[in-house]
Amino acid sequence: MASNTQSARQWKLHSQQVESDKHDLEEGNLPRYLYRYTSLEWLEKNIINNNIYFADPPKLNDPFDCNLNIDATVTPEIIFSWLQRLQQQGVMNSHFQSILLNPKNQSTIKKVVQSDPNKLESLAKESVKNELDKLGICCFIKPPENETDEKNNLLMWAHYADKHKGVRLKFNTCDIIEVITPLQKVKYQNDYPEFDFYKGDEQFIILASTKSTSWRYENEYRSIQREYGSLSFPPKALIEITFGCRVPYNDAIMLKKQLLASGFTNTEYAITHPYKKEFKLEYHKLI
C-alpha cells in the first residue's frame, strides 16, 4: 500500500492530468464522444453497477499488445537502478521487484547474465512485463466525422459486440474525463516500441498505447490506469446504448429496465436491424 506521501503525489499527478485532458478536449484535441462496443455480459457486470472495468494487458485480445523491444546496451545495473527509482517514487511495489532489488540476489543475477547474454534480455523484459501487467486498460474508439459511418461500423459490431449480440455504448467525454484520465490516442506502427530504462513510468503509457498497423481501422483511444479493476462513473456520461441486431427484443427491453433502475434515466436506447438491400444497419428507438 502506498504511503500518504506517495498517495498525495499520485493524486496531484492525476489532478494535473485531468486538467490537461480537459484543456485538450476544449481545444478539440480529444474526441467529444467516445464509443465502446462490448458484450451484454460486460454491460450487466459493469455498466448496470455504474462501473467501467479496466482490464490487465494479458486479457486483451491481441497477443502482440503491450510488447516491447529492449535496448541492446542495457545492463543489469541499469535495470536495478530503474527499479530502485520507480520504487522510491511509489510507482510500484511487488514481490518480483523486491527480489531483484535484494543485494544478495543481484550478485547471483549478474553472474547468470554474464554466463548467458540471452538471459539479460529475458530479465529486462520480465522486469517490465511484471509491472506492465498490473495496469488497467479500457478501450474506446473515436467516431468518424460522419456519424452515419460509425452506425454502420460492421467490423466493430462483429469483432467486439459479441457478433452483434452485444451493445454499442456512447459516452460524453466531458462527463467521464475525470474517471478515464489519462486518455491516450493509440499509435499504430510496425515495430514494438523500445523501452528506455533511463525514463520514468511514462514509458508504460507508451507501451500500453502502441499497436500494430493492422488495427488502424479501430481509431482507438485508451484509458490507462495504475491498476486493473473497476471504477465508478456518473450515469449522465453514458448518453446512448444501442443493442445489436442479434439481441432478442425482449432481452433488450429487460436490460433497459435494469439500466433505468440503475440511474441511466437520461440515456437514449436503440436497437439495430439489418438493412434489406445494403450492407448496413437500421437504428430504431427502443420503446
- Helix count equals 11
**Low confidence ranges:** 1-9
Largest sheet: 5 strands, mixed
Order of helices and strands: HEHEEHHHHEHHEHEEEHEEEEHEE
> Which radius of gyration do the C-alpha atoms yield?
22 Å
- Strands of the widest sheet, in order across it, are 1-5-12-13-14
Count the strands? 14
Q: What distance separates the N and C termini?
A: 48 Å
How many domains? 2
Global shape? elongated
Mean pLDDT: 85
Overview of this protein structure:
This protein is α/β, with parallel strands linked by helices and 287 residues long. It contains eleven helices and 14 strands. It has helices spanning 4-26, 40-45, 76-88, 95-100, 103-115, 118-132, 147-151, 154-160, 173-180, 202-208, 249-261, and strands at residues 33-38, 51-54, 69-70, 136-141, 167-172, 183-185, 187-189, 194-195, 210-212, 220-225, 229-232, 238-243, 268-274, 281-285. The strands form five sheets. Strands 1-5-12-13-14 form a five-stranded mixed β-sheet, sandwiched between helices. α1 packs antiparallel against α9 (173-180). Mean pLDDT is 85; it is low at 1-9.
Concise synopsis of the structure shown:
The chain has 2 domains: 4-66 and 134-285, no CATH class; 69-132, no CATH class.
Helices, strands, pairings?
Elements: H1 4-26, E1 33-38, H2 40-45, E2 51-54, E3 69-70, H3 76-88, H4 95-100, H5 103-115, H6 118-132, E4 136-141, H7 147-151, H8 154-160, E5 167-172, H9 173-180, E6 183-185, E7 187-189, E8 194-195, H10 202-208, E9 210-212, E10 220-225, E11 229-232, E12 238-243, H11 249-261, E13 268-274, E14 281-285
Parallel strand pairs: 3-8, 7-9, 12-13
Antiparallel strand pairs: 1-5, 2-11, 4-10, 5-12, 6-10, 13-14
